UniProtKB/TrEMBL annotation:
<dbReference type="GO" id="GO:0005524">
    <property type="term" value="F:ATP binding"/>
</dbReference>
<feature type="binding site">
    <location>
        <begin position="232"/>
        <end position="239"/>
    </location>
    <ligand>
        <name>ATP</name>
    </ligand>
</feature>
<dbReference type="GO" id="GO:0016787">
    <property type="term" value="F:hydrolase activity"/>
</dbReference>
<dbReference type="GO" id="GO:0000725">
    <property type="term" value="P:recombinational repair"/>
</dbReference>
<dbReference type="Pfam" id="PF00580">
    <property type="entry name" value="UvrD-helicase"/>
</dbReference>
<feature type="domain" description="UvrD-like helicase ATP-binding">
    <location>
        <begin position="211"/>
        <end position="611"/>
    </location>
</feature>
<keyword id="KW-0347">Helicase</keyword>
<dbReference type="InterPro" id="IPR000212">
    <property type="entry name" value="DNA_helicase_UvrD/REP"/>
</dbReference>
<dbReference type="InterPro" id="IPR027417">
    <property type="entry name" value="P-loop_NTPase"/>
</dbReference>
<dbReference type="Pfam" id="PF13538">
    <property type="entry name" value="UvrD_C_2"/>
</dbReference>
<dbReference type="InterPro" id="IPR013986">
    <property type="entry name" value="DExx_box_DNA_helicase_dom_sf"/>
</dbReference>
<dbReference type="InterPro" id="IPR014016">
    <property type="entry name" value="UvrD-like_ATP-bd"/>
</dbReference>
<keyword id="KW-0378">Hydrolase</keyword>
<dbReference type="GO" id="GO:0003677">
    <property type="term" value="F:DNA binding"/>
</dbReference>
<feature type="coiled-coil region">
    <location>
        <begin position="399"/>
        <end position="426"/>
    </location>
</feature>
<keyword id="KW-0547">Nucleotide-binding</keyword>
<dbReference type="GO" id="GO:0043138">
    <property type="term" value="F:3'-5' DNA helicase activity"/>
</dbReference>
């Protein structure tokens, strides 16, 4: 780049920063003053309004005065919020006002190119019209991500604009100085990306706004698809693109959609903390984050002892695949996560329109007051065309009336008289108050009236839990219905492998009040088919990360739970470590969920997280791994360290940990296969001098921190580390084919360094890796 051009650009950066500083200096005192005013008005609110309620004129005056004060307050609050957010944007722009420039000659103009500089927020000149910086989410900025110099077109709210891009320039600016600057073609320069990716990790995910790639931009800006499926290689930027997409959508629909109307399903709470700084970094509020497990807990947690996905995985990994009970459990999981089972449940629910409903009766003091057969008879006496949830609603209404009738009749029962003795003082006082009020106009004698009131109170108290039960729909015997799928005629028709054993195990777990993870979503699905689906109509966008771990049941839930939402499902089938996994792009049932017209799929092949040698090693572990493209970032080969014993392995690994920590690595993870392995590895390694502060991550860890830690592979999903040390890569630990994806997931967490340790024979996966894609190190022994 010639020096004159560089100087010109630096002068522009200086000028824009000058404007920013001027505006910041102007607005800072105004924001502080407004804040002081708001605080002042709030605290003096009651002093300033004339409170005089004696006369009616005064009352009006007071109301007017209060209204005026409230209006002043909300007007000041609005101005304060707007100015403060403008100020925050300017402060964010100050160190690096922009990262890109495009020159565009619009069709039909005189040929003079318009220059558009692109940054994290828009910034206008004093005239209030000229954009000194365009927000990366503005329509014109899309050109920066989608095109190279040449013919271009982009959508604006006013229609399509076509033109010629005459220049595309990238900048790296730090603290106001241009560090690098180059004109590029189609892709956003590898140089910049190299620079960004070679940095060490931090405890929080970073925004990628300056280096978004074209295919990622397609994810970010897609607002057509009802279901957007993103299948992307490990480290291809799925999570990053998803978060940028949230920021884009919040900007695009800022007048009608707020952060509360979006929800992100993440794999675990630690992951939520890891990504929580991206949106604030982009000047947006964080959206709601949850896990599917949270939803299950909310709906089923009170009634059952719920197993979570991690416990399920641990159970499956607890023994060798050849172990019969492990095989049976795996068969149970895959059967209950299948579309076939979903369809079976739907067919079973339709059958309930005719027969088979199960209810629980209502008891009062050990006596049945509304029997289950009474409920069933009423249910089936209804018109055959009425849907299940509507019948339940009608039955509930009847139940509430019936309980009221029973309660009135029950007041005369002998036990009520006895219970009166047990009313406490408070209740007596309340009743006497009512008594005093009613006595005036009553014909009855006081003692008769008193007894009537007391009896009413006792009966009301006794029926209260029954009324609550009726409202809660807990009188539908959902577990009983679910059990019916595993017994009698239903069970006999099942063609699944080992069905009768699966059925026996399911029934015995349910009888103990335990709900296995694979039963939770199907049971809830069946319950909702009967009683109607809960809905949240305010949510407009749902993002599902690690979507390969979602079963058909979970996707069907999302569709029904969020009927007004567009869903983005991001995942990688190669990282499907749980037994219930979805192939995403290749899944026919997922395509059918909203139908092909409303479903779009984007595939990301390029992997950015790891160095080229790491990607070359990890992709060679997969049968279709050649489709994954490494980003050309150099680094050292992955290393297989062969140890003679477990003790030697711990010693060697410990020494490597210390060496890496003394170097540049900010985060180093010792990744284990299971929670149990993680616990014993942590104990063994912590005993090594210098490693006393080694941390251990469990499924209850809420916050992601950098430094040295030990973590089970399934919890490391979605996060990344400068260095990954795979604790046990021996044939004992990873000898089975079913563990290939877990192994792959663990290895792909590494950004710069990957070392794998094996005491004894190494995992057979190494034999599948390309020759020369890793180095073997064997310590010299005497
Ligand atoms: N366009 C980009 N510019 C700069 N960095 C990027 C870009 N895309 C991805 N990255 C970086 O690559 C790493 C991996 O990204 P991310 O975690 O979003 O990938 P992922 O597809 O969700 O990975 P996984 O499925 O393995 O969890 C992150 O450090 C991210 O910042």
């Amino acid at each position: 780049m010639d020096a004159g051009e560089w100087k010109k650009e630096q002068a522009r950066v200086d000028a824009v920063r000058g404007q920013l500083k001027k505006r910041i200096a102007r607005d800072e005192p105004i924001v502080s003053e407004l804040k002081a005013q708001v605080v002042g008005i709030r605290s003096e609110f009651w002093d300033d309004v004339t409170v005089n309620l004696a006369e009616s004129d005064d009352r009006i005056e007071t109301a007017v005065s209060m209204k005026q004060q409230a209006e002043v307050l909300s007007e000041r609050e609005r101005s304060h919020r707007a100015l403060r957010s403008g100020l925050q944007k300017m402060r964010r722009l100050l160190p690096a006002p922009y990262f890109g420039r495009i020159d565009l000659v619009e069709e039909g103009t005189d040929g003079t190119p318009e220059q558009a500089y692109v940054g994290v927020a828009s910034f206008l000149a004093d005239d209030g019209e000229t954009f000194l910086v365009y927000d990366w989410r503005t329509p014109i900025a899309s050109l920066y991500y989608d095109y190279g110099p040449g013919a271009v077109r982009y959508e604006t709210p006013g229609g399509e604009i076509a033109g010629e891009m005459t220049l595309k320039r990238q900048f790296s600016i730090r603290e106001g100085r241009i560090r690098s600057m180059f004109d590029t073609g189609m892709t956003i320069g590898d140089e910049l990306l190299q620079d960004v990716l070679s940095r060490t990790s931090s405890s929080q995910m970073q925004a990628i706004v300056g280096t978004i790639q074209q295919d990622q931009n397609a994810i970010i800006r897609n607002d057509r698809a009802r279901l957007l499926i993103v299948q992307g290689a490990a480290g291809s930027g799925k999570t990053s693109a998803a978060l940028q997409r949230v920021a884009y959508l919040l900007y695009k629909h800022r007048s009608r959609i707020s952060a509360e109307q979006m929800v992100l399903f993440s794999p675990n709470p630690m992951f939520s903390s890891y990504i929580s700084s991206v949106l604030p970094e982009l000047g947006e509020e964080n959206i709601k984050q949850t896990t599917f497990q949270d939803y299950l807990e909310l709906r089923l947690g009170r009634r059952y002892e719920l197993e979570d996905a991690a416990e399920q995985l641990e159970a499956v990994l607890a023994g060798p695949e050849a172990d019969d009970s492990i095989r049976l459990r795996a068969a149970s999981i895959s059967c209950k996560s299948s579309v076939r089972f979903l369809e079976r449940i739907e067919a079973f629910a339709s059958g309930l329109l005719r027969s088979g409903m199960r209810f629980k009766g209502f008891r009062l003091r050990g006596r049945v007051v509304v029997g289950r057969s009474q409920l069933t008879e009423r249910f089936y006496a209804m018109d055959a065309s009425i849907r299940l949830p509507n019948r339940i609603e009608l039955l509930k209404e009847w139940l509430l009336e019936e309980l009221e009738r029973l309660e009135t009749a029950e007041r005369e029962a002998d036990w009520v008289r006895e219970e009166i003795e047990f009313l406490d003082d408070d209740q007596y006082r309340k009743i006497h108050k009512t008594l005093r009020r009613q006595r005036a106009g009553a014909d009855e004698e006081e003692s008769v009236l008193e007894e009537r009131l007391l009896r009413t109170e006792v009966a009301r108290r006794a029926f209260r839990p029954l009324r609550r039960l009726a409202e809660s729909l807990a009188w539908i015997d959902a577990a009983g219905l679910y059990k019916d799928l595993f017994r009698g005629e239903q069970a006999e028709n099942a063609a699944e492998e080992r069905w009768s054993e699966i059925a026996a195990r399911t029934l015995s777990a349910l009888d103990d009040g335990r709900l296995l993870h694979e039963d939770a979503a199907p049971l809830l699905y069946l319950t909702e088919l009967v009683q109607g689906f809960r809905m949240n109509t305010s949510i407009r966008y749902v993002i599902v990360d690690e979507a390969q771990d979602f079963s058909p049941f979970q996707f069907h839930f999302l569709k029904r739970l969020f009927p007004m939402a567009k869903i983005t499902a991001l995942g990688d089938f190669n990282q499907a470590i749980f037994a219930h996994s979805t192939e995403l792009a290749a899944s026919a049932w997922l395509q059918r969920l909203y139908g092909p017209d409303q479903t779009e799929t984007i595939v990301l092949r390029r992997s950015y997280r790891s160095t080229r040698p790491i990607v070359e090693f990890t992709r060679s572990l997969l049968p279709d791994g050649t489709a994954i493209e490494p980003f050309d970032r150099p680094g050292e080969l992955p290393v297989l360290v062969r140890a003679g014993s477990a003790e030697e392995r711990d010693r060697l690994l410990g020494a490597d940990l210390l060496k890496l920590a003394a170097g540049e690595a900010a985060s180093i993870a010792v990744i284990c296969r299971t929670e149990g392995e993680s616990q014993s590895a942590w104990e063994a390694l912590r005993a090594i001098p210098g490693l006393e502060s080694l941390k251990r991550v469990t499924k209850d860890t809420a916050k992601f921190e950098s430094g040295m830690l030990v973590i089970p592979a399934y919890l490391a999903k979605g996060v990344e580390f400068d260095a990954v040390l795979l604790y046990d890569a021996s044939a004992d630990a990873y000898g089975e084919e079913r563990l290939r994806k877990l192994f792959y997931t663990a290895c792909t967490r590494a950004m710069h360094v990957l070392r794998l340790y094996a005491a004894g024979a190494a995992s057979p996966f190494f034999a599948d890796a390309s020759p020369g894609s890793f180095r073997v190190v064997e310590p010299a022994r005497p």
